[in-house]
Amino acid sequence: MIEVARNDRQIENWPSPYSSDMTEYRERDFQSLVRHSCKTKRVTLKIAKAIVIGDVSVGKSSLIE
User: Fold this and answer.
1) Is 36 part of any domain?
2) What is the DSSP letter of 45?
């Protein structure tokens, strides 16, 4: 298992929504707790489940892959 993901696989901040009126989420960046947790050097198997909802052909699968 690699310690650091490739640069093209790292998300530095949330992309802006197509329209701010269409989303209830106002966060523009990850919470400080999340950023701190990602910077720790613990290498463990992380299992997660995500449901991604969005328009067709906007890159939902590329976030997961």
Assistant:
1) yes
2) -
Q: Which residues contact 44 (CB under 8 A, 6 or more apart)?
A: none
Encoding tokens for residue 64? Answer: 């997961």
Total number of domains in the chain: 1
For residue 33, being part of any structural domain is answered with: yes
Domain-embedded: residue 26: yes
Range of the domain at 52: 12-56
pLDDT in tens, the chain (65 residues): 667 778 887 777 777 777 777 777 776 677 888 778 777 766 666 677 777 788 887 777 776 65
Burial 14-40 (b: 16+ CB within 10 A, else e): eeeeeeeeeeeeeeeeeeeeeeeeeee
